[in-house]
Amino acid sequence: MISLKQLRHLTVIAEQTNMHKAAEVLHITQPALTRSLNTLEGLLNVRLFDRHSGGMRATPFCTEIIDKCHQILLDVEDIQRAARLLHNVEEGELNVGVGRGIGELVLRNSIPEFVSRHPNIRITVVEGTHDDLTRGLEKRDFDFLVIGLGSYQGASGLRKELITNIPLSVIARTGHPLQAGKNLSLSQLTQYALMSPTSVGSEHPLALAVADANPELILPHVICGDYPTLISTLLCSDSVLISSAYNCESELQQGLLVALDVTHPALNTELGIIEIDKRSRSPAAEAFITILMASMVALN
């Protein structure tokens, strides 16, 4: 009978394409890994890899089944995780993925509060792009994501929960050519380099709105998750930044930057939680989300 260990070995060999590297990842000897693969090929009565001087190349059959093997391993991990959750202990770990551009807004108050209440739970927060975070969630690297829901229109296999709506501002340097304008349109903005802390999916309302205003424009011109860099760029150019004003609060108060007079329904971020559908939420995740929601209410 095929074992989970053999499937795990198979997926790592496919990822590494080299028996020596795969054995290192799995922390076993190369001869033991070779025996495991040979046994699996014998059970299936089919060759899974072509061996060559450069390493291992998956056969068409192996390529066909590898996604199923990954899913089986993930399903088993979810079963084991659900069993652990029954203990509901104040220990363990929590892994959270956070969208770029909202990290500080989300974490400034919620992380200190969570750590003070649950000091024995190890928490890891990773900030990333929509695509990177989604892949990590699917691989179970994260318990959940805190991210804008706009890019997940029509996404399947995921559970979405709205936390709050965050208005976006269009920010520029003081003295920008559009500063005196009233009721500016997105078409007027697209005459200047648009900046954003993160990319947005093609189905995101803002991407659709900008495409409608200027079909030739690819949004945005500049993507950078480091706000000091974005602010420095604003101060020395006529570029404009689409972001929560929260991230430029100090410069706005000092009068170095201004929020342009732009109103559009797409200038809004539906901040929410994204999870794997039907996957149990751990007590640690439930506690963090409760704290996060309370902090966002207090902020608004």
Count of DSSP strands: 12
Looking at the overall shape, the CATH architecture of the largest domain is: 3-Layer(aba) Sandwich
Q: What's the structural domain tally?
A: 3
The side-by-side strand order for the widest beta sheet comes to 4-3-5-12-6
Low-confidence stretches: none
Beta percentage is: 15-25%
Tell me the number of helical segments per DSSP (H or I, 4 or more residues long).
11
Q: Can you identify the CATH class of the largest domain?
A: Alpha Beta
Measured on Cα atoms, how large is the radius of gyration? Answer: 24 Å
Compute the separation of the termini in Å.
57 Å
The run of helices and strands is HHHEEHEHEHEEEHEHEHEHEEH
Name some characteristics of this structure.
300 residues; alpha/beta; D-Maltodextrin-Binding Protein, domain 2; 5-stranded mixed sheet; elongated
Report on the structure:
The protein has 300 residues and is α/β, with parallel strands linked by helices. It folds into three domains: 4-85, Arc Repressor Mutant, subunit A, CATH 1.10.10; 92-165 and 270-299, Periplasmic binding protein-like II (D-Maltodextrin-Binding Protein, domain 2); 169-266, D-Maltodextrin-Binding Protein, domain 2, CATH 3.40.190. It has eleven helices and twelve strands. It has helices spanning 4-16, 19-26, 30-44, 60-85, 103-117, 130-138, 186-189, 205-213, 227-235, 249-254, 283-299, and strands at 49-52, 55-58, 92-99, 121-128, 144-148, 158-167, 169-173, 194-196, 222-223, 240-243, 257-259, 268-276. A five-stranded mixed β-sheet has the order 4-3-5-12-6, with helices on both faces. The longest helix has 26 residues, at 60-85. The protein is elongated. The model has no long low-confidence stretch (mean pLDDT 85).
